[in-house]
Design goal:
- This protein is 26% helix and 38% strand.
- By secondary structure, it is of the alpha+beta class.
- It has two domains: 3-238, P-loop containing nucleotide triphosphate hydrolases (Rossmann fold, 3-Layer(aba) Sandwich), CATH 3.40.50; 242-340, OB fold (Dihydrolipoamide Acetyltransferase, E2P), CATH 2.40.50.
Length: 341
């Protein structure tokens, strides 16, 4: 076993899976470092949940390998893998108390009563759920139910934690709170974690790295910042964040005729009522409040741009100058170059 294999928490090697006559996973490779938190991000049908089920052992690949901490577990069922999964619907037993729900996987593995009680109390204490030890799922909030499902996974002391859309059943405000709790807990326990989500904000805010998926393949596997700053395909550029998109070329701050796809982040558009170097005459056509910033539509001779402005927001009809500080140029769907000025 190589040092690289020992240090990796998870390796997926040339995975392939066909379901119902349709290719779901194709030649998928992924390496997750030990203690790292990685998101599988993409739209419905891209293969991210199938990939998670293969990692967990609930589904076997048609070909390829699954290595957990260097050990080949491709043909091993979920009950014999050092992993635990938190399902999208939490899958809590409604007639059981919080304690019994969390204790269930230890009970079926025939742990003794004393060991079960210690492990369950320890994990409930970590997740601030001891006050609900005798409550049933219907008596606690959605966020608390999610933490119970997480406790049931953690009580098994898994080497790798798998989360399938764990926040999708929560309202927007609670989702932010719980994802912060998950990230803080994951860092504290240093547990290798893979989370499936279609929510880019969720993936970018809690992950060390993100694997953006498309049609059963990984388009790009990078840090959140790298994905945003230098998306290597047009697909990733459009999926992550907001983008002004045009056909042409980008020369001296202007859109010119050409065969590239030019992508411009709204954050990379500056506006001033005063003349600035490289600025082009522009007019404010529309303003959309977005909370801590404003989405401003600017009309120019060469294009219509969206800009995200946090301060000095002009009124509709204001004339001034706009400048693009960075543009992404794609050719045949792949990154050709990044233009900065």
């Amino acid at each position: 076993m190589t040092t690289f294999e020992q240090e990796s928490g998870l390796q997926l090697v040339e995975l392939n899976k066909v379901l119902g006559g349709r290719v779901i996973i194709e030649n998928l490779n992924l390496t997750v470092k030990k203690g790292e938190m990685v998101s599988l991000l993409g739209p419905s049908g891209c293969g991210k949940t199938t990939t998670l089920r293969i990692i967990s052992g609930f589904l076997f690949p048609d070909s390829g390998k699954v290595l957990l901490e260097g050990k080949d577990v491709t043909a091993v069922g979920p009950e014999k893998r050092p992993s635990a999964m938190v399902f999208q619907n939490y899958a809590l037993w409604p007639h059981m108390t919080v304690f019994k729900n969390v204790a269930y996987p230890l009970k079926i593995r025939k742990f003794n009563k004393q060991a079960i009680e210690k492990r369950v109390h320890d994990v409930l204490d970590i997740l601030n759920l001891m006050h609900h030890v005798n409550s049933r799922p219907s008596q606690i909030s959605g966020g608390e139910q999610q933490r119970v499902a997480l406790a049931r996974a953690l009580v098994q002391e898994p080497h790798i934690l798998l989360l399938d859309e764990p926040l999708s059943n929560l309202d927007a405000k609670l989702r932010i709170k719980v994802r912060e709790d998950i990230r803080e807990l994951q860092r504290r326990l240093a547990i290798t974690t893979v989370i499936v989500t279609h929510d880019q904000d969720e993936a970018l805010s809690i992950s060390d790295r993100v694997a953006v998926m498309k049609s059963g393949r990984i388009e790009q596997f990078s840090t959140p910042q790298e994905l945003y700053d230098a998306p290597i395909t047009e697909y990733v550029a459009n999926f992550i964040g907001s983008l002004n998109s045009f056909t042409g070329d980008f020369v001296d701050g202007r859109l010119t005729p050409g065969e590239f796809t030019v992508g411009i982040r709204p954050e990379d558009v500056k506006f001033s009522v005063k003349s600035m170097v490289g600025g082009i005459q522009s007019k404010v056509e529309q303003i959309v409040p977005r909370g801590h910033f404003h989405e401003v539509y600017l009309g120019r001779a060469d294009m219509r741009l969206r800009a995200f402005l946090a301060s000095d927001v002009p009124e509709v009809g204001t004339e001034g100058y706009s400048k693009v500080t960075k543009a992404l140029l794609y050719q045949k769907g792949n990154l050709f170059k990044i233009v900065e000025q």
